[in-house]
What we know:
two-stranded antiparallel sheet, six-stranded antiparallel beta sheet, 207 residues, 10 strands, disordered N terminus, Phosphorylase Kinase, domain 1, 26% strand, 7 helices, 31% helix, Transferase(Phosphotransferase), domain 1
Amino acid sequence: MSDDELYLSISYKNGEFLKHGQYKILNEIGEGGFGKVYLVEDTKNESEKRALKILTRNLLDNDELLNAIDEINLLRDMDNNFIIKYYDCFRHDHRACLVTNYCEGGDLDDKIYEYKKNSQHFEENQIFIWVCQMLDGLSYLHSRNIIHRDIKPANIFLHKNLTKLGDLGLARSLASIQKSSKFAGTINYLCPELIENNELFFASDIW
């Protein structure tokens, strides 16, 4: 069994507590190559429900883990209705744990699949509202000199009739992006600048 398979095979039981009793595991709600996502209860904040993402340990070396924690600490200071709120970041069993909003509506990619499967369609007015919300969230990111770099339906979450931009793990400041040549993004949603290895700009997120 590989290290990835070993760490992905580790699960936490319902009712188990993490971070000195602050987060109570309610149930597992997602899994991917990055690790697992749990619905948790934040016992120190009026039992609010949060999403807890536990990353596979060996996807990050120690320096990368510290950089990820620094990045999340930056992102959790953001305050916009249309961006996933990051509440906390800590280590557990030598793995990075990220605490964010819990969006009961899932992501837009799953919603599109569900509608297509049932031969349904979205109302034009609903699409217009969602697009305006997404643009508001992007505008907020860009006003703080940050580019998302991975806009796609799977990174847009639905919560109480609101869309929220999430999975900000690839988001970086414009200055740091221009100093780095590291590839980032999802193949089917890459902007021309990234494909051609040119500098990225705020408009790259609109693509």
